[in-house]
Write a sequence for this structure.
């Protein structure tokens, strides 16, 4: 097996499988100190698997909106220094809390990203990651970026076209969302997540 | 001079310098309790970037590492409390109970089908190909097994009855108006489908009308098929028992009243018996247009 480093520090390629270094947490496959990261279970993994460079660095503080049960969070925590993980649904938040008891650099927050009430807890962050199935994805990203993202910080927003408008063509939906995001952020690139996810795109942007 | 409220306490700043503070102790449980009790406003970005630094300066923690571990302990404690609170809401219980009923129904069906197949066990095929009675030892094993199998199905249906009874009690307390219009079980199903009484109360009537007919609705939106007339409210006897041509109209009327009932139940809890009378009157008019012309 050949181990290569990915463009993103902290991410590795075991042959063609994506992996991060750390303790196994949700039943993923493990090779030595490497935990495999399935691109079909994590949109960030899908984006990395497609060979994109995501501006994630080891010293960053990340605000993660839509953490769900924490699959992606757990890998992200291997890559960066601290993750503030926001999840609204109590069922999956329960799994997230269990996970954060084991991972030392995850701070779980049960809150609604649409109406951020974690302003007194979360510090200024270097990276905003958003993966939520809501109609107003761009608006939520902008509200949170305005509150929490430092100048010069980056954002990665996973757009789920089907949550915004099922009847429209996904490409048209991305275009509309990118335009809204462009009002605050400088868009670096937009990349579709096919074949891992249907009708999903990743927008990577920077706050000037 | 500005006063900011952070998760670890109140701080008064003058020209960016801390002049006064009211920092809490380093007990995660106590801080979490404070977070639950108090109202917080947003901080500006300059203060936000100094949270760690200020906590260290105030002597709350001695290093950035300590800051993170205290914050984590507080956040985990607070999150657990929020999750427990969300699960102990009565409508959350109703959602779970309805889920239980559905699972039991599925299991009963599955087991009953198996039971029919089990007739095979009572016969033995001899070498000559004739069907004969089983021998003595088997003739006691198989009927006993079958009997126990039947008993467990009966037991499940008893549990189902008990759950249904509990739902009825809970529903009359949580959503009395919804109960009077839709009945306890259908009302509970509506809450379960919406996720909570709050989200049902926030729904437009049109969504309540087709809730549960997702496939048909999206076929309509995406490919222009006919729109669905009703979702789970079809289970209501006034819809199910009406002629096909009138079900759509009745479903629309009923959904409108259900939306009102859910809102009253969530926001005020007062009982409004006139809602049911209004709905029934309107449905009578739909079924018999002559009544309306007369009045």
């Amino acid at each position: 097996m050949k181990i290569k480093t990915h463009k993103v520090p902290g991410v590795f390629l075991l042959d063609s499988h994506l992996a991060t270094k750390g303790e196994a947490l949700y039943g993923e496959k493990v090779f030595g100190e490497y935990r495999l990261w399935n691109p079909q279970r994590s949109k960030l993994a899908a984006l990395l698997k497609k060979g994109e460079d995501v501006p994630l660095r080891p010293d960053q503080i990340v605000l993660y909106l839509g953490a769900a049960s924490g699959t992606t969070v757990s890998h992200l925590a291997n890559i960066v220094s601290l993750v503030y993980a926001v999840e609204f649904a109590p069922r999956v938040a329960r799994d997230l809390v269990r996970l954060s008891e084991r991972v030392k650099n995850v701070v779980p927050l049960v809150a609604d990203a649409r109406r951020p009430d974690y302003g007194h807890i979360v510090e200024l962050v270097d990276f905003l990651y958003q993966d939520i199935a809501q109609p107003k994805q761009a608006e939520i990203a902008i509200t949170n970026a305005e509150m929490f993202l430092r100048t010069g910080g980056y954002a990665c927003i996973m757009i789920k076209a089907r949550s915004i408008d099922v009847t429209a063509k996904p490409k048209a939906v991305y275009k509309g969302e990118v335009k809204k995001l462009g009002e605050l952020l400088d868009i670096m690139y937009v990349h579709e997540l096919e074949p891992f996810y249907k009708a999903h795109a990743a927008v990577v942007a920077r706050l000037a | 001079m500005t006063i900011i409220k952070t998760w670890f306490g109140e701080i008064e700043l003058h020209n960016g310098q801390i002049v006064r503070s009211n920092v809490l102790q380093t007990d995660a449980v106590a801080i979490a309790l404070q977070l639950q009790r108090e109202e917080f406003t947003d901080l500006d970005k300059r203060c936000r970037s100094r949270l760690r630094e200020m906590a260290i300066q105030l002597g709350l923690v001695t290093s950035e590492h300590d800051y993170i571990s205290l914050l984590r302990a507080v956040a985990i404690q607070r999150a657990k409390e929020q999750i427990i609170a969300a699960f102990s809401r009565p409508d959350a219980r109703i959602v779970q109970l309805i889920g239980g009923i559905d699972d039991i129904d599925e299991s009963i069906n599955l087991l009953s089908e198996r039971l029919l197949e089990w007739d095979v066990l009572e016969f033995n095929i001899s070498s000559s190909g004739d069907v004969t009675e089983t021998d003595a030892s088997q003739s006691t094993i198989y009927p006993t097994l079958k009997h126990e199998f039947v008993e467990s199905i009966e037991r499940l249906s008893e549990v189902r009855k008990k759950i249904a009874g509990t739902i009825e009690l809970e529903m009359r307390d949580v959503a009395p108006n919804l109960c009077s219009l839709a009945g306890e079980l259908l009302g509970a199903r509506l809450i379960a489908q919406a996720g909570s009484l709050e989200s049902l109360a926030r729904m437009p009537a049109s969504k309540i009308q087709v809730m549960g007919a997702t496939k048909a609705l999206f076929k309509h939106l995406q490919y222009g098929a006919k729109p669905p007339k009703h979702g789970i409210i079809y289970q209501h006897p006034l819809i199910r028992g009406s002629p096909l041509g009138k079900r759509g109209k009745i479903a629309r009327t009923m959904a409108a009243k259900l939306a009102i009932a859910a809102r009253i139940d969530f926001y005020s809890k007062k009982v409004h018996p006139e809602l049911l009378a209004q709905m029934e009157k309107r449905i009578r008019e739909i079924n018999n247009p002559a009544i309306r012309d007369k009045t």
Observations:
- The first strand of chain A starts at residue 3 and ends at 5.
- Chain A touches chain B at residues 82, 90, 93-94, 96-97, 100-101, 104-110, 116-117, 119-124, 147-148, 150, 166-167 (CB under 8 Å).
